[in-house]
Each structure stands twice: as C-alpha cells, then as structure tokens.
Specification:
There is one protein chain. By secondary structure, the chain is mostly helical. The protein has one domain. About 30% of the residues are buried. Bound molecules: fe (ii) ion (FE2) (2 copies). One fe (ii) ion (FE2) binds next to helix 4.
C-alpha cells in the first residue's frame, strides 16, 4: 500500500474489500447463536473499555481539553452499551473473564501491538503521546466504522433487533475529529500512516482468524 497523500476511509475500505465477506460470514455464525453473540458483544465491550482507558492513561495531563474528554467519555459509554447488550443476550451479568469473551488474548494484543508500533515510530517526535493517540484513534476508528457497518447489516439480515446507529455516528464524529486534529501535524505523514494501516491490517487478519477459531 503506498499513498501520495494521506490515506482516506475510502482507501481503507478498498484495501479491506477482501476481508468483508470473511468477517460477514464469521458474524453470521456469531449472531446465529445467542450465547456466542453475548460473548462477542462482551468482547467488543472490553475493546471499547480498553480504548477509553488508554485515552485516560495517556492523555491525562495539563493539555487535556474538552474534545479528548468527550472522546474518552463516549468510548466508555460504548463499553457500557456493549456490556448491557451482552448481558441482555446472555440473560445474566457477564464480567471480562476469558470464558465470557471470544479470543480475548489476541483481542488485547491487537490493540497493544498497534499502539506500541505507532508509539515506537513516533518516540523521537515532539509530543509523542498526543500524536500516537491521534494516529492510533484514526486507524481504530476506520476499523470500527468498517466493522460496525458490516455487523449492523448482519444483524438486520438475521432480524436481530440491535441498533448501532448512534454508536456508529459517534465513531464517525471521532474519525472527523482525528482527521481535523492530524491536519496540523505534518509528522503524521502519508507514508507513516500507510505503514500504520498495513500494520493494523496484518493484526486484524490475525484477530479475525482468532475470532473464526473461537466461534467454530
Ligand atoms: Fe467506540
Ligand atoms: Fe470512537
């Protein structure tokens, strides 16, 4: 993947075209079985919680502004949203114990490895924690918007009542915020972002494989 200009969501979608059917197929199997669906929703809750927690840990300094606090609060709410849905489908209250999740070890690794890859690359730049947060969030939002769109379609096709509409619109808002914030940071160059996209895609491929195994 090489880009003259910074990659856009449409570039991301094109690069992931080959995975759409595979993820949809995996999601169909997940949604078809209520206990598995509950574990999957709980896994999404865990990932959203990790996102909120990382923002809180890395951005809690004197420079903390309203937009970042809003982002943190919304990701925490997404964790709550998915947990509430997970409990509903499970018919009981679920914690984040591995038996209540799908491929939890790799789901955590996906997040951690991507963040450390970006942090390592940005370590000698000015304000590396802020720029790492912006780049990491940009890429995660691309993946979230893409995957939640496919998830909604799978839910609708299976006639499962669960709307991701407001969550999806908040993720789109975050993406727009990250794009705006990154516009002022030339160090987040097109080639750097393209390399983060490739890294994320490699990690996502493994995550998808882990989900497929976890569901089979
Ligand atoms: Fe989120
Ligand atoms: Fe988000």
């Amino acid at each position: 993947m090489s880009y003259q200009t910074r990659p856009t969501y449409s570039d991301f979608e094109t690069a992931n075209h080959g995975f759409a059917e595979r993820l949809s197929c995996c999601l169909q199997n997940i949604v078809a079985d209520e206990p598995t669906h509950a574990r999957f929703l709980n896994t999404l809750s865990m990932l959203e919680h990790m996102g909120a927690r990382r923002i809180m840990i890395t951005q809690s300094n004197l420079g903390l502004r309203q937009d970042v606090l809003k982002h943190m609060a919304e990701e925490a709410r997404h964790a709550f949203f998915f947990k509430r849905q997970a409990d509903k489908f499970a018919g009981k209250s679920l914690d984040y114990h591995p038996r209540h999740l799908i491929a939890p070890a790799f789901a955590r690794l996906y997040f951690k490895r991507l963040e450390s890859f970006i942090a390592q690359d940005m370590r000698r730049e000015e304000n590396p924690t802020l720029i790492t947060y912006l780049c990491m969030s940009l890429i995660i939002e691309y993946r979230a918007i893409w995957a939640f769109g496919l998830f909604q379609k799978t839910l609708d096709d299976a006639k499962v009542i669960l709307s991701l509409k407001s969550l999806l619109s908040e993720e789109k808002g975050h993406l727009a915020d990250m794009e705006t914030a990154l516009a002022d940071h030339e160090i987040a160059s097109a080639s750097r972002l393209a390399s983060y996209f490739s890294k994320e895609q490699a990690l996502f491929t493994k995550l998808l494989g882990s989900f497929e195994k976890g569901v089979a």
